[in-house]
Backbone:
């Protein structure tokens, strides 16, 4: 317990710092997924096994990892808020020494909303990748390549939206 200070301060700051690290990691994973999605020439039914399906599988791995990082990030922010509630109403306006903690906690609801937006965008992207993978498995279907391309473009937009939600460029950034 800190003398004269808020006893949960260190734990809360550690949770918030870890949340930031997880968000940064997710951003890196999302950025690493984009190159697998941006090459339309590899996404045709004629070369499904070596092209599109392989690229989708690589992108799906990055997206899954990014999603896990963002879920942990949101959990850390929620835990920090729950610990902060232990302060009680009498200490909601801490002394100047706790100003950084209060400022960080004031940003949590908005940051968590952005993380949730990014998670929704990743889920949306993964849905489009699943549709593209299904289409790639049916090379004889007329117009399949055009549909695969539409799904690829939608997946790229989903990753860009997730990056934008995290303030790392793309849509919404």
Residues:
């Amino acid at each position: 317990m800190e003398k004269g200070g808020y006893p949960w301060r260190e734990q809360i700051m550690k949770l918030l710092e870890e949340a930031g690290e997880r968000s940064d990691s997710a951003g890196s994973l999302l950025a690493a997924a984009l190159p697998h999605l941006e090459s339309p020439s590899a996404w045709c039914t004629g070369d499904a096994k070596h092209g599109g399906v392989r690229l989708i599988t690589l992108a799906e791995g990055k997206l899954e990892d990014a999603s896990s990082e963002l879920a942990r990030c949101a959990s850390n922010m929620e835990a920090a808020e729950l610990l902060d509630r232990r302060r009680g109403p009498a200490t909601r306006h801490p002394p100047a020494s706790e100003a950084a903690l209060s400022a960080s906690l004031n940003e949590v609801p908005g940051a968590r909303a952005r993380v949730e937006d990014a998670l929704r965008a990743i889920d949306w992207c993964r849905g489009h990748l699943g549709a593209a993978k299904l289409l790639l498995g049916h090379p004889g279907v007329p117009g399949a390549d055009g549909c695969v391309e539409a799904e690829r473009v939608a997946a790229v937009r989903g990753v860009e939206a997730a990056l934008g939600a995290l303030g790392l460029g793309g849509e919404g950034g």
Summary: The chain has one domain: 9-91+105-165. The mean pLDDT is 86. Residues 14 and 133 are 40 Å apart (CA to CA).
